[in-house]
Automatic annotation (TrEMBL):
<dbReference type="InterPro" id="IPR000172">
    <property type="entry name" value="GMC_OxRdtase_N"/>
</dbReference>
<dbReference type="GO" id="GO:0044550">
    <property type="term" value="P:secondary metabolite biosynthetic process"/>
</dbReference>
<dbReference type="Pfam" id="PF05199">
    <property type="entry name" value="GMC_oxred_C"/>
</dbReference>
<dbReference type="InterPro" id="IPR036188">
    <property type="entry name" value="FAD/NAD-bd_sf"/>
</dbReference>
<dbReference type="GO" id="GO:0016614">
    <property type="term" value="F:oxidoreductase activity, acting on CH-OH group of donors"/>
</dbReference>
<dbReference type="InterPro" id="IPR012132">
    <property type="entry name" value="GMC_OxRdtase"/>
</dbReference>
<feature type="domain" description="Glucose-methanol-choline oxidoreductase N-terminal">
    <location>
        <begin position="105"/>
        <end position="128"/>
    </location>
</feature>
<feature type="domain" description="Glucose-methanol-choline oxidoreductase N-terminal">
    <location>
        <begin position="380"/>
        <end position="394"/>
    </location>
</feature>
<dbReference type="GO" id="GO:0050660">
    <property type="term" value="F:flavin adenine dinucleotide binding"/>
</dbReference>
<keyword id="KW-0274">FAD</keyword>
<dbReference type="InterPro" id="IPR007867">
    <property type="entry name" value="GMC_OxRtase_C"/>
</dbReference>
<keyword id="KW-0732">Signal</keyword>
<comment type="similarity">
    <text>Belongs to the GMC oxidoreductase family.</text>
</comment>
<dbReference type="Pfam" id="PF00732">
    <property type="entry name" value="GMC_oxred_N"/>
</dbReference>
<feature type="signal peptide">
    <location>
        <begin position="1"/>
        <end position="17"/>
    </location>
</feature>
<protein>
    <recommendedName>
        <fullName>Glucose-methanol-choline oxidoreductase N-terminal domain-containing protein</fullName>
    </recommendedName>
</protein>
<keyword id="KW-0285">Flavoprotein</keyword>
Amino acid sequence: MLGYRVCASILLPSAVALPLNTPLLSSYDYIIVGGGASGLTVANRLSEDPSVTVLLLEAGPADTGEDIVMIPGFIGHDIGGKYDWNLSTVAQTFLDGNARSVPSGRALGGGTLLNGMLWSRGGREDYEDWVRLGNPGWGWDDMLPYFMKSEMFTPMRDARTAEEYSVREDRSVHGYAGPVNVSYPNYQWNSSISLFSGLAELGIPIAYDPNAGDVAGASFLPFNLDPVTQTRHTARRAYYDSIANRPNLWVATGQTVTQILFNGAQGNADASTAAPSDMFVGQGSSPGTVGIFGDGSMLNVSSLPPSPSGGSAAGPSSTLHRRLLVTRIWQTRKTVLSKTRRQTAPSGPSLNATGVEFAPNAQSLRQTISATREVILAAGAIHTPQLLMLSGIGPASSLQALGITPLQDLPGVGQNLQDHMQVWCWYPYHNAYTSNPTELNTNQTFVDEAWHDYWSSRTGPFTSGAIDGVAFPSLPHINPLAAASISSLAASQDPRAFLPPTTHPNLLAGFSAQLSLLATALQDPRRAAYELINANDGDLTVASMRPLSRGSVTLASSLPFTPPLIDPRYGSNPLDLQVLREAIRFNARLINTTAMSELAPEQVYPPVGATDEEVEGYVRNKGQTEYHYSGTTAMMPRELGGVVDAELRVYGVANLRVVDTGVFPLVPAGHLQAVVYGAADIIKAAWTSSRVAPAPFESSSTVDSVATTDPIVVSAASDPGTLSSLADVATATSESTQRTPTADVATTEAPIAVPTPITDVVVVTTWVTVYT
Ligand SMILES: Cc1cc2nc3c(=O)[nH]c(=O)nc-3n(C[C@H](O)[C@H](O)[C@H](O)COP(=O)(O)OP(=O)(O)OC[C@H]3O[C@@H](n4cnc5c(N)ncnc54)[C@H](O)[C@@H]3O)c2cc1C
Ligand SMILES: *[C@@H]1O[C@H](CO)[C@@H](O)[C@H](O)[C@H]1NC(C)=O
Ligand SMILES: *[C@@H]1O[C@H](CO)[C@@H](O)[C@H](O)[C@H]1NC(C)=O
Ligand SMILES: *[C@@H]1O[C@H](CO)[C@@H](O)[C@H](O)[C@H]1NC(C)=O
Ligand SMILES: *[C@@H]1O[C@H](CO)[C@@H](O)[C@H](O)[C@H]1NC(C)=O
Ligand SMILES: *[C@@H]1O[C@H](CO)[C@@H](O)[C@H](O)[C@H]1NC(C)=O
Ligand SMILES: *[C@@H]1O[C@H](CO)[C@@H](O)[C@H](O)[C@H]1NC(C)=O
Ligand SMILES: *[C@@H]1O[C@H](CO)[C@@H](O)[C@H](O)[C@H]1NC(C)=O
């Protein structure tokens, strides 16, 4: 394959004609590693400045708007599919000894292609805790403008439905001009009405806006959903499609970054060598931990007829539209390149990130590209620490053990792994009077009607996932005595008690600081202790929002395509099991309320009469991820085991930042996409200031306040995923002089890139598309 060194513009006009995967320059101002939620946010924001060049490298492909990605009714079905890394944990010895799946997005858009589409920000005090852990500028009031800025919020469609489903929006905390469409499905499963009434009977607050900072209670969460087409709004649609024609932004898919380069040199010789045996295969998903639906109902996708229009939910592939822009882009790129660039003043740490090495797969020769300003890691909380360690940044002794030369001893890299462990519980509803997602599995008439409704009017069950109404109870809400007991046990816990004996003293100090904040949170009636995830069929899953267990991501090998060892150490801190035990006890009271009794629920798992020990045993058996991996490159002082400072700069390395969920020092009580969009955006201020003046983050945050920055302009016509723009796309396509089938476009995602000598500043690599 490597023999095919050809000029891409002759062989593959369509590939060259696309901004996605056009040949790369030898050097960029900024290189972003990973094109998920955080990476695309940063790419969008940095490339607003036309005088800088930005390259984003994403390991996975670009989606083609498949129904399984776009239609909310298919939530959960692409787990383990072609946009998943297929990772697994090591044996979870504090649970039942089995491994667990770790679904993670591997595509342009990352986790936002796989996720449950729930949109929540966590609570006010969650961010004050970040500040308390040494991060000025990250409080709720600092974050809120960025949370708002990310949203194009559409309120519930009518007041009556809002009233019925306890949706009480606070319009002042939402944004209306941002890139992510946030709205409600055109269909609600009506058993959640009974759920909210039942929760209210037991004194849980309902009917408030869950995104206004006070989370504790029950609420109907909005979705990252296009309100008109009722399709998933991924990070790629929100932050990339609308700006794909920026002449200073390069995005390459199918390219895995294998090493960060420092001071122009490679540290890990193993990573640089093409290795035929180093095939990425993931660990495979683990049986019994199927994901979003727990063990509950799963729609049989193959029972559905083809979509009536023969098209996709999203409309024609968005890539078609962009071909017209090509000539202009190449001309402008040349202009951009000829400009002189400002350079960062040489000062600070002697270790300096100067570029990256990357390859489409293990067997390919590595390529290098340099970054004149910064390398920004956005590969997610699992892969960012892996890449740092592969590059020599991490716990020195573990790196040495694998033959990697430690360039910076940072014991926190890969440690402090947090996740919301969730436990599926099962109380099937036997009253057919309410709508129930299990019908998608059992009643073909229901499925056919639902499918027809979706395609004819974008209404019905396929506009929603099974999960919609949820609750975030505090411990005092459900059991004041247990709240006091669990909280005081947490406050008096020896931080060493449940961490591995080898834990570095800095990490112990960090965990100690976290422990006292968590003890406070667990007894606060205004703060969520767990999430009750209602899948409307009797599945009342509970997930711990304040995990005390800490896990790790470590290297299995010095080879970059070998998956890392993921050990969340679920349940290692026994207080996590106690919180979930209380949550499960509360489920039994909940189904016993007048409102819930009408659904005729039957308690099946855990069984009626189970003792505390048996319930905790059940938790050990069923505990799995809620997909909220975070904390592995924590933003905390170095003395507390932190990896990045409050400007997200990696300690001891110049020109290297991390922007993904790994930087969250404590996982907030919410779902993470809205949080990471805000967090990745807030950091633009640091770049702005470092180029204006070398001022600290606090004093510069006003430079980039929402009021003084141009909003991200999103033109409806440039988002070909919307129904309203179908006409535009059709026009653009018919005008295009370089027509090729969409299939060509789709296959450009995994080119083998061949290193060539630099003969022209614009084209340093040629690309050969592999047709398989
Ligand atoms: C199954 C599932 C359900 C979820 N449900 C919800 C939900 O309902 N609501 C919610 O808010 N959140 C949910 N989440 C979480 C949310 O989607 C993630 O927290 C979010 O996507 C994290 O953003 P990120 O930028 O940190 O990482 P990601 O979005 O994971 O992006 C990281 C990207 O980096 C790429 N990458 C990794 N390594 C490399 C490398 N070496 N070189 C190049 N590229 C690389 C990956 O392929 C990926 O595209 C869910 C996640 C999953 C997986
Ligand atoms: C994950 O598994 C699916 C289904 O087998 C496959 O299509 C996909 O390529 C796998 N992902 C990776 C990164 O290997
Ligand atoms: C799914 O539907 C297909 C087609 O109707 C059928 O052949 C298959 O048996 C079904 N699978 C399950 C698990 O019900
Ligand atoms: C980092 O390296 C680049 C490229 O060699 C150089 O221009 C820059 O001054 C260096 N920065 C620091 C902080 O050492
Ligand atoms: C719930 O919806 C179903 C139809 O989907 C309807 O038959 C039923 O009357 C509704 N129940 C309530 C309590 O509104
Ligand atoms: C199947 O669904 C249809 C359409 O919603 C409904 O009329 C019918 O009662 C359902 N059948 C059963 C057995 O629930
Ligand atoms: C359910 O309600 C009945 C009657 O009010 C009560 O006797 C019983 O203890 C309740 N069970 C639970 C688990 O709360
Ligand atoms: C949100 O969806 C609407 C309706 O399809 C569309 O007009 C709008 O452009 C979308 N917003 C963004 C930011 O993409």
